[in-house]
Amino acid sequence: MLKKSRFFISVVLIFLLLFSTTAYAKPQPKYSFDDIQQFTWAVKAIEKMYAKGFIKGVGDKKFNPSKPVTHLEALVMILRAMGYEEQANKITELPKEYKGPKLSWGKGFITLAYQKGILTYDELKRFNPNEKAKRYEIAKYLVRALGLENQAQQNMNKVLNYKDWDKIPKDAIGYMYVAVEKNLIKGDGEKLKPNDPVRRVEMAVLLERLDEKVQNNLNGRDVVATVYAIDNNTITVKVNGGLKTFNILKNVPVYNENEYVGIDYLKPGYQIRLILDFKNNIIFVEVLNNKSEEVIPIELKDVKNPPEKVSSAVEAIKNKPAVKLVEENGIYYVIATRGMMRTGGYIVNIQKAQIIKTSKDTILEVEVKYIDPSPDAIVTQAITYPYDIKSFTYDGKITQISVKTDKNINVSVDIDLASDVK
């Protein structure tokens, strides 16, 4: 009997352990490269810059994070982040001032860097594309890429509280000063290590900081939006006042700051950055704010016998396309009109709505569909004023209305609330 009890207890403990592990286990990252897992402070930057096409792997799912970048590699990455890759690829000749080794690739990037002022005349004459790039040299490239050359020159005598500040070459002090002040380069709290070669893993982080300054949206493939709805295969987001739906590629990396969180972490209302491939599939997601909005679904009900206040509101706006919110006796009424139509057959349908709460406003989002009669439809030959009314309950005050329609119609909005609505 004792043996059976022990066996039963063991089975229960195993099930509890399995359940707890399942319930609380974090998603396992699916990295783009097999050799970056240990660099937890830089993994997100590597994945993000790889998704944007600013950095590449070295083959066989390897990134080689500890390898120093060369001067040419650094210029290529920086020019990509600035959005100049296509322009550089069209250039096939090196500047006549270039005296370095012969190159099989990258000529256009060197030429463009010289034209853009990222490389100076004196630097170009002694430029060695295969030499390891030091931190102070990368600082020069970053500062010039951002058009901050004058600021660097004006701060050549500045001193910051780092133990190795005196190790910076005199002609680079202003660049390091600006790079630190602009949060492009950060030390370890005590040292900047200006003469250390920059490793590929560090370059990914520097590129991410540069990208934040440049805000290269990859011709529309870097999208900052708010999650509207999400399922296993797609994400619908609010962007520029409208809704867009994108496909999610399998194992897409999703990060909240430097933590891998997985696709299940996303919720409606989260502000996110999506990076898309050339087919508009999502290949990277970054959570920018998981507290910016609260999405409150509401249930719309048909209104057959509206109160007098609502009927009067319909009469007041029926001559134009409009959406009006009216509150009466604790119930909200949404009215959508189309304006005067010369025949029957036109339909207005308030399809759905939701409430978005931000730190400042409570916004009612309404989707309205306008239906026209088909060309061969038999319709009433009389002037009509199509409209729709829906009602819902909500214990709070709505401060704004946002309207989405399926047609290019200029819709006016208005709110008529009782003074005691909180």
UniProtKB/TrEMBL annotation:
InterPro entries: Cell_Envelope_Struct_Comp, PrcB_C_dom, SLH_dom. Residues 29-92, 93-156, 159-221 form the SLH domain. Residues 1-25 form the signal peptide. It comes from the Bacteria. Keywords: Repeat, Signal. Transmembrane segments: none annotated. It holds the Pfam family SLH. This is S-layer domain-containing protein. The lineage of its organism: Bacteria, Bacillati, Bacillota, Clostridia, Thermoanaerobacterales.
